[in-house]
Amino acid sequence: MLKKTFEYDKNKVISIEQNDCLKFLKSLPSHSVDLIVTDPAYSGMNNKLKLGSGRIVGKYKDKGLNGSKWFSEFEDTEENYKVFLTECRRILKKDTGHIYIMFDSFSLLSLGKLMREYFDVKNIITWDKINMGMGHYFRRRHEFIIFATNGNSRKIKNRKLPDVWRFKRVHRAKYPTQKPVEVFNAMIYASSREGFTVCDPFLGSGSSAIAAIKNKCNFLGCDISKKSIDISSDRVEKYIDKNLDILQKEGSSIVSDTLWG
Ligand SMILES: C[S@@+](CC[C@H](N)C(=O)[O-])C[C@H]1O[C@@H](n2cnc3c(N)ncnc32)[C@H](O)[C@@H]1O
User: Fold this and answer.
1) Residue 39 Cβ < 6 Å to ligand 1
2) Average pLDDT over residues 248-260
3) Distances (CA, A) of 172 to 10, 91, 178, 228
4) Which of 203, 222, 227 to mutate to test the pocket of ligand 1 (most atoms within 8 A of CB)?
């Protein structure tokens, strides 16, 4: 199994491995993680909401190897999702753990409701991507992020932060479904302190890992795709060594200097 570890800022560690999300989460000790931030590859949206002969989420085929998809999707049945949420709750610190999970409009209604069975759901955040994507009726311009806590006690950094976040989507992304670092930065900024351990079991291009470094956190990430591990470890290495993000131009997603609208 491919695994890469990077040290920065003397004693902070970014650890990235190729693995299935459930196997990876099961390998982590109970109550060892302060914060989960993640953007799963839901199969539901793709299977059920087709747009003509194409797919609504990501142009996998264009970017795939030998015409195949770039990556597999997580089988997002309720059964599977419950195992996933059970593991997320087990690894999160009790009372102080925070979790942010991204949802498209399909999975929000089918799986989002399950979050309540495992966590205290505090907000549904809307990420406004500014530019429209595809869609049969109203063209898609947003995604959702459910924010929840593992118990009730720890607050976010301050009370001035809104539940609509405005960041431009990544233009000509090198990894399909690559999210702006700013989206993960908003989650980690609000819910972490220096030295916290952040986990993302659907790492993709590594945007969450870059955001963890910006917030001086430790990071544990995995993805089932080797391509993801190759791309994200190269990205993390260059970011640590040269302060250079090779997949996203600094500030390219920011639309306003107010937090975050
Ligand atoms: C929506 S993408 C994540 C994109 C990422 N947030 C970014 O900004 O680049 C979802 C990722 O989940 C991965 N994936 C799919 N099934 C998985 C599984 N069973 N375990 C772990 N990762 C999986 C895919 O390879 C893909 O990279």
Assistant:
1) yes
2) 89
3) 34, 35, 9, 17
4) 203
Residue 37 Cα, ligand 1 centroid: separation in angstroms?
A: 12
pTM: 0.92
Burial class (CB in 10 A: 0-12, 13-18, 19+), 114: middle
CA 236 to ligand 1 centroid distance, Å: 17
Q: How many CB atoms lie within 10 A of CB 55?
A: 17
Q: What is the mean predicted confidence (pLDDT) over 227-243?
A: 97
What average pLDDT score do residues 166-178 get? Answer: 93
User: Is the pLDDT at 95 greater than 70, yes or no?
Assistant: yes
For 185-213, what is each residue's pLDDT tens digit?
Answer: 999 999 999 999 999 999 999 999 999 99
Domains of the chain: 3-242 (3.40.50.150)
SS3 content of the chain, % helix, strand, coil (to 5): 30, 25, 45
193: Cα separation from own chain's centroid? 19
CA–centroid distance, 94 to ligand 1, in Å, is 26
**Does the C-beta of 232 come closer than 6 Å to ligand 1?**
no
- Contact (Cβ atoms closer than 8 angstroms) between residue 220 and residue 197: yes
Ligand 1 pocket, 38 CB below 6 A? no
Is the preceding peptide bond at 165 cis, omega within 30 degrees of 0? Answer: no
The more confident residue out of 115 and 46 is 115
Confidence of residue 52 (pLDDT cuts 50, 70, 90): very low
pLDDT of residue 24: 97
Q: 73 C-alpha vs ligand 1 centroid, how far in Å?
A: 7
